[in-house]
Amino acid sequence: MTRFLALALLLTACGGAAVTVPPTWERPGLGGAVRPEMGSPQPGEAAPDLVLPDLEGRSVSLASMRGSWVVVHFTATWCPFCDSEVEHLGALADAVSPEGVKTVLVDVEDDAHVWHDYAQKHVAPSVVALHDATGAATARFAPPRAQPSFDDRAQAVLDATLIVDPAGVIRLFLLPDSAHFDPTFGAVRAELGRFVPPLVVAVGAAPCTVVAGRHAELAVRLEVAPGYHVMSDRPSAPTYVATRVVVEGSPGLGVGDALFPAPGSFVFADRAITTFSGAVDVRIPVDVAGDAAPGPRPLRGSVRYQACTATRCLFPSTRTFDVEVMVVSSAP
């Protein structure tokens, strides 16, 4: 059974007793969840793609966010319910973005200037704000029998919220429901807490300024959660997953291999394993060509690691991060 929204799932418990799991819409705060009889798209199915402009006019697609959990919310500037949610959506985005969750807000059928002015004043920078001028992209998210009285299918999902997993599959789909309206997204936060694994390694990189023709080092910090450790960059056995930090270069800017601090030692059974824990400061050598043009250079980096506790190891994980190198022609 692939769908998360089932009428009732019977699980066999110890001793042969059957336990009835209530459908999603009977759980606290989720009364507005879509139901199978409403039609597709449903949880357990692939989310329709959308390709829409952001506030800078750049084209952004939902498909480009594969690999991350995504919260998608639909809004309109004239909608009082929607307006009461926008600030809370920003707070949600601020809270979950450190865990790699992206938050997308899609405006439906507003005038472009009206939406742009509204978003500049009310939408948090942590939210990816998109504009669906015709409602055509939004209409693909409307289950055909959810609100059959609506001729405009785009309006059927106005004020709706979805959680989409890293594979692009819908995990939660809430439609407008005044009886269960919660502008703080409390139920959505709770579901994210169930779906998204805890953030074990936080990654941060400090921007730096480099004079053309000179050498510098980027500072990347890994913050390993208490109780966890990650394997070192030179693990004790070939089967262990080495911690790797890689930053991609750009024209005129060369990036060297990461320089790690000395590892610690974690004793497991009769073996000592080289690991990192706590704050791990990694240095990335950067060399700038003498003829490199002045200006900012956005770089993309990645961290590969496997986190473990004293009793279990998580699956290996890869995190990405962005960092900026400012190239100047002479020292300030």
Task: Walk me through this protein's architecture.
The chain has 332 residues and is mainly β. It is 13% helix and 35% strand. The protein is built from 4 helices and 21 strands. Strands 7-6-5-8-9 form a 5-stranded mixed beta sheet. Strands 10-12-18-15 form a 4-stranded antiparallel beta sheet, with no helix packed on it. The longest helix is centred in the N-terminal third of the chain and has 17 residues, at 80-96. The radius of gyration is 24 Å and the shape is globular.
Task: Please give the structural blueprint.
Layout: E1 9-12, E2 18-21, E3 51-53, E4 59-61, E5 70-75, H1 80-96, E6 102-108, H2 112-122, E7 128-132, H3 136-139, E8 161-164, E9 170-174, H4 186-195, E10 201-206, E11 208-211, E12 215-224, E13 229-231, E14 244-247, E15 253-255, E16 264-268, E17 271-276, E18 279-288, E19 295-305, E20 307-308, E21 317-328
Parallel strand pairs: 5-6, 6-7, 11-21
Antiparallel strand pairs: 1-2, 3-4, 5-8, 8-9, 10-12, 12-18, 13-17, 13-20, 14-19, 15-18, 16-17, 19-21
Mean pLDDT over the residues: 88
Q: How are the strands ordered across the major sheet?
A: 7-6-5-8-9
Q: pLDDT under 50 segments (min length 5)?
A: 1-19
Give a quick account of the main beta sheet: strands, pairing sense, barrel closure: 5 strands, mixed
Q: Give the helix/strand class.
A: mainly beta
Features:
332 residues; mainly beta; five-stranded mixed beta sheet; four-stranded antiparallel beta sheet; 4 helices; 35% strand; disordered N terminus
